[in-house]
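Build the 3D complex.
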Amino acid sequence: MGSCGMEKVRCALIGPGNIGTDLLYKLKRSPVLEPVWMVGIDPASEGLARAREMGLKTTDQGVDGLLPHVHADGIQIAFDSTSAYVHAENARKLGELGVLMIDLTPAAIGPYCIPPVNLAEQLERGATNVNMVTCGGQATIPMVAAVSRVQAVEYGEIIATVSSKSVGPGTRKNIDEFTRTTAGAVRDVGGAKKGKAIIIINPAEPPLMMRDTVHCLTVETPDQAAITASVHRMIAEVQKYVPGYRLKNGPVFEGRRVSIFLEVEGLGDYLPKYAGNLDIMTAAAARTGEMFARRLQSPGAVAA
Amino acid sequence: MSATTRLKGRKIAVHDMSLRDGMHPKRHQISVEQMKTVAVGLDQAGVPLIEVTHGDGLGGASVNYGFAAASDEDYLRAVVPLMKRAKISALLLPGIGTVDELRMAADCGIACIRVATHCTEADVSEQHIALGRKLGLDTVGFLMMSHMADPSKILEQARLMESYGANCIYTTDSAGYMLPEDVAERVDALRQGLKPETEIGFHGHHNLAMGVANSIAAVTAGASRIDCACGGMGAGAGNTPMEVFIAVAERMGIETGVDTFRIMDVAEDLVTPMMDFPVRIDRNSLTLGYAGTYSSFLLFAKRAEKQYGVPARDILVEMGRRKTVGGQEDMIEDVALDLLKNRSVAV
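Done.
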């Protein structure tokens, strides 16, 4: 184990909802992270009660309830799964205390982070707040990058199909934020000159597993062998933290179009397995947290 | 008392779909000039509402759905100023288009925005419906694939859209699956449960040849807006053919304000000659209605048949079996590849 003999890095979770709880399950297994605090705003929250049962300290006073304990409890990393609006304040207050922020909201104050594509770069640049984009972004941008690292991509388009049960009220209230943020990250992180994102919510019962389609239009005729190999390598990278990430069909080549069909099955920690869209967010956040923690444990290893 | 006398004098508004739903059988390649010509013809015939957008709504231009011959903005800027009486609407599917495109369309001078969601997912439409209302537009909530939910669910979802600011709610038979009784039940539930001032609309597809009968059932149950496509040019076997519906309405005494002969001429002389193939009930479009599959999937399934040698009908049935909803065009190639794999395993 890489962390052999080192103390775990202590962290806090803000937002005891479905995402926060699923993330807590994952962090509990981490060899390098130790979840210490769960922050909520509702004293009757089931998520806070569950966190207490799992041995965490909790507060129902929002991030202000955590601030006095940050130094005493040695909190170095915080995961925020509240809302874009709340995150701005949380980031400011915890940032002043030197806590690194992993943002699972659509706030995107910090740079986008898709672990197998640009996490190493963010670590080298000494980022203190990274944003986990969207579930659709986490599932598809690795594939856009797998094509764009072989040859120039003029246009990248992703279609994320998710089960109705796995889409919470926050996403529903501002679905444009999903399409805009994902499209922006297809371009900025995926490396496509132009990005487009579509989300489809399907209410079928039993709920369908997350499905994603990635279309890239390359500038030149696609190098089929190189792209296929790159896609398979990237699938293996994502599978390191999301074992249920699968290439279902493709890559299919037609003219300059490259199409990749994916399925994302979650681990089923707290959330059901079909909610691969939520699992890939918490898994990516946990992986990002672990990489940040390793930087904190041995600054020389990854510092620029 | 016969329906004929009961409906005599009932005033309704027809909404033309040939330049939006009709984009599907045209692979979104209707030219700006064709849009202008047909829209002027419809306006002169007395059609009060005309929809002009990419087939999949604002922002629909994509690999997934197809890139149109021109942008939504180009179409709207060309058509809106030519209208003497007719109002132009645009369609928007949250998840595909955003409020940015809605603002653009409003700036082009649309009078009506129609915000479409799957019939159980109305809560994704809040920001778009609220903005439409704020911009002073005739704001319509459009519940797609209405056959997949029972009337009480349709009403529950319609109430959400009404609460966001929609002044008209549609029950939409995107698959052309519903029968007159199904339509009547849903419209009736809406009429009973929504505010009296909220209008109710019906959008049909002709896959089981029920377009006109379903529309009449909707009017009978209290709908005051009916979507029709001139020449029947729409997805699948097309929408309720406008000229047929107008003729039937006239016979029944329903007042549409549309001139029957003039609308026949627009269908025959302007719309039909534009078609790449006859938009009609055939084995594949009939399958849509029979299997309850989204009508826009038709051409994609035919294309996959050509490319992979899997019958389009098998693909469409499988799409229905998987309970796919509007917008899942990306699943068609995937399903074709799956069917191909299964076949090679079987052999």
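Chain B touches chain A at residues 62-64, 94-96, 98-100, 118, 120-121, 123-124, 126-127, 148, 307, 322-325, 327-328, 330-331, 333-334, 337-338 (CB under 8 Å).
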